[in-house]
Automatic annotation (TrEMBL):
The chain crosses the membrane at residues 61-84, 96-116, 122-143, 179-197, 203-227. InterPro entries: UCP010219. This is VC0807 family protein. It comes from Actinomadura gamaensis. Keywords: Membrane, Transmembrane, Transmembrane helix.
Length: 241
């Protein structure tokens, strides 16, 4: 519940288990000019599913169960406990704790404290929603600057040949996908704000989570399909010397 663009974090994390094969494919791509092949969708989905449950579904269930049993303060304690429990679990398994995750935990603690002090759950959910709006703006602004954020995220996580990234079709694809995700996060924020101020917490949690997940799933499907189509066309072209 505490990670700001939770859907984005889930999507980005899908690369984890397939990273080794991606490095090999990138190396092959350098040898073959502008060719590049994305790992199979099944591999990505198997990596995404546990992280989606951990980062989106479980926090909502934990907060709402505690909220229903013990009220707002109980829900806030459970939400904070979930975040710190995740940190402790990673530390105990020797995975290390990224600095950004520590900052997120601090942010959740501050938000929960403010919500408890004011007895207003709106304050707890407002900050992630505003964060989602800022993410939308970042994707949008990156396009006219010719530094599409979708490409930045993709190349940070998945090594791709420079020749592939310089191809006009690839540049056009990442610009369009950046606009797509700007729209997705804008719709996410607008829906969240409307429901936050007009609906009950239960409706906000479950309906908003379901709609945002469905919207994100459609965007992911469109993005993957578009990338495969783009890569297929680029790979079909003869490599330039």
């Amino acid at each position: 519940m505490g990670r700001v663009p939770d859907l984005a974090g889930t999507i980005i994390a899908t690369h984890a288990g397939a990273r080794g094969s991606m490095h090999q494919k990138a190396a092959d791509g350098h040898a073959c000019g502008h060719s590049f092949e994305l790992p199979r969708l099944g591999i990505l989905l198997r990596q995404a599913a546990p992280r989606f449950v951990e980062g989106v579904i479980a926090p909502v269930a934990v907060f709402y169960a505690a909220f229903a049993l013990w009220g707002l303060n109980g829900g806030l304690v459970a939400a904070v406990g979930w975040v710190y429990g995740g940190l402790a679990w990673r530390y105990a398994r020797g995975h290390g704790v990224p600095g950004m995750l520590l900052l997120a935990a601090v942010g959740v603690t501050v938000r929960a404290g403010l919500a408890a002090a004011t007895h207003s759950p709106v304050l707890y959910f407002l900050q992630p929603t505003l964060g989602t709006l800022m993410v939308s703006g970042s994707f949008l602004v990156s396009v006219p600057l010719r530094r599409p954020l979708a490409q930045k995220i993709a190349t940070d996580l998945v090594p791709m040949p420079e020749a592939f990234l310089r191809h006009v079709r690839v540049r056009r694809f990442f610009s369009r996908v950046s606009l797509l995700w700007a729209s997705v996060f804008l719709a996410n924020a607008a829906l969240s704000l409307w429901m936050l101020f007009s609906q009950s917490i239960a409706v906000f949690l479950w309906v908003r989570t379901s709609l945002v997940a469905a919207l994100g799933a459609v965007a992911v499907a469109v993005s993957v399909w578009g990338f495969r189509r783009c890569a297929g066309r680029v790979n079909a072209e003869p490599a330039t010397a």
